[in-house]
Please model this.
Amino acid sequence: MVLLAFFVVQCSAIENNENDTSEIGIPVFTDKADQINPAIYGNYVLWMDWRDDNWDIYMFDIESGTESAVCTAPGHQESPVKEGSIIYWADGRSEQKYVYRSCTN
Model:
């Protein structure tokens, strides 16, 4: 099982050359299913999530602390990338994979 956690290193720890930051962190999502391939874009963390027995794309807004599903269509959704307000991913909901997109605020 792989759990996704977004860890924040405090600036004071870096400034004081403190190397042990293992106790510092904020879990983004910790489900029994796997979450893999996190990608950070500004205030957003995107990842692939196996919670519904196939790979879906989810997003966490660091600023607001909210999680939302980007795409939970049948088949596998993989490799999320965010450019501005648009999220792109490879989508296997049909026999051939296509690139899909969705807009964020």
The longest strand covers residues 35-41. Residues 11-15 form the longest helix (5 residues). Helices lie at 11-15. The mean pLDDT is 80.
